[in-house]
Structures are given as C-alpha cells and as structure tokens.
Amino acid sequence: MQTDLRGRDLITTQEWSKEEIETLLDVAWDLKRKRALGEPHAYLRDKVLAMLFFFTSTRTRTSFEAGMAQLGGHAQFIDHTTTQISHGDTAKEIGEIIGRYCDGIAIRQCDWKVGNQYIRDVAAASRVPVLNMQCDVYHPFQILADLMTIMEKFGRDLRGKTINVSWAYASSYQKPISVPQSLILLMSRFGMNVRLTRPPEYKLMPDIVEQARDNAKRSGGSFEIFEDFDEGFKGADVVYPKSWGAMLTTEDPEESARIGQKYTDWITDDRRMALAAEHAIYMHCLPADRNIEVTDSVIDGFQSVVYDEAENRLHVQKAAMALTMR
Ligand code: CP
Asked: Whose C-alpha in 26, 73, 114, 200 is 20 to 30 A from the C-alpha of 130?
C-alpha cells in the first residue's frame, strides 16, 4: 500500500502506480462506509480547494463541492464567465497565486489541444496539488469512479472480464474524447479484456491507444479495436457506449456532426444489450442523449449502474483530496 501521496497532482491515472490507485480505492471505500454510517471524517478541516471551470458541469462541480464540505473544508467555484481566468490571468499566474491562497487547485479545461497543457502549466507553477476535473485528453476522476463501480459489481479481481468501450451517436454536441481515452488506459491496467469499438472516423489519440496496448500486455489482459457496433457488445461483461467527437479526423465541429449522421443507428437498445453477457452492466458517465445515444429502457433498466457511477465520483474525489491535500 502506497500512502505517501501528500502534494501529488492527479492529471492522469497513468502517472499513479497501480498500488497508489489501489490505495485511493481503499480510502474511497472507507469514506463511503463512514458516510453511510454518519461517522465524521473531517480530514481537511480549514483547507480550501479552488475549482476552476472553463466548461460547464453538473456532477463534477456538485461532487467536489459536497466532498470538500464533508471533509471539513471549503470549495471555491471559480467560473470563467465571472472571473478573469479565461483572459488576462496566465496559467503560471494562476498556479502561483491560487496556490498561495488555497490547498488544492482543481481544473476543468476541455478545449481541444489546450486543456491538458493548461493544467500542466498551472501544476508546474503551483505549490499545492492540481487535480484534473477533465481536460481534452483525460477525465481521471470519472474513470476512477467507474473502476470502483465495476469492482463493486464484479469483485476487485477484474482479470478476464471484458469491457466494451464504444462510440455511440449523439446529436447535442461534439463531446470530448477524454472519457474513452481514460477508460482504455485504466481498465487495461487491471487485467481486463478491453474492446474499443468505434467507426473509422472516431479514432482516439494514437499514443493513448499504444499506452493502452502496453498496459494490457503488462497486466495479462488484452486490447482490441472493433468497427462493428453489435460485435463490440457480444459476450461483454461491461458495456460503456458513449458519444465523442471526430477530433482526430476533423477539428470542424460542423463537419464532425455531418460525419456522425452516417452512424445514427449506433444507439444502445434492448437488442444490443441482449448480445452482451446475461449479467452485463451498462455504464455511462452522463449526461447522455436519451433515446439517441441510449434508449430509456436501457439507461433506466436493471442492467444500468449509472447512478452508482455518479455516486462514486464523490467517494474517489474525497479520497484523492484527503490523500493529496493533507
Ligand atoms: N460525468 C461528468 O463529468 O459530468 P459533468 O460534466 O456534469 O460534471
């Protein structure tokens, strides 16, 4: 068990060892149990987390804010429309200045080819830990909550279990690729058989795919790419179909939306769920485009674990804050 995590940034799970991630999960389960029993756990009394949002959020904002309060501290909501963070204040200034006021800095910056670099620039200038609340490349806290949820359903040894990380059609907007990228990176480290299913235009970053392949080799799992939506579901224990933009094919959102029109039938419905294992669970980070990405019958059905996933955001984030911000 690795317990010396004070001061550590969490920008991608790839930068935390498997033992460190196991520690974070142990602490998350302990905090979940304490909350269920009403046991106080104010490990961060008088500490302050600055939360910088360059992009909207429901779950991430509310769970980080609630988590800091439950740990005895305070979270500041710093929005790009009401402050100067998106103009004028440089990443270096933010890291230096907010690092002097607060005990941790959490950032959501999803702009393509900007977000991850911004977070790394803030981290380089900050004396306190920097937590990635989602960037253009990674969404680590979502995927840690997903891992916690999968382990709650299947046990901690996930070797040999198959997860299908699939693209799905959505009409609302071109969603970041950070969720599927983080999923293939983390699940491949726990011995899972990872399938990435997507149309040819919806590729992920080649270096991320290579890292997932390497992770799978090291963990005794496997990594495969499918281009047939139905094929990805067959026999899977975990299905995680969600939409993302065709950023690796075009940076024009309108062109990306036009490409998506070719695949409007990539919707998760009861027929597709029946192709997966009988005990399969359906996952989605939310928000989903209901009856476009997934039917109501699936997302509200007996195989769906979306509310457990959303809840576990709270527990993994509290664990990360308690371990890094003490
Ligand atoms: N899943 C997730 O990150 O939700 P929000 O975008 O609402 O924070």
From this structure: 26
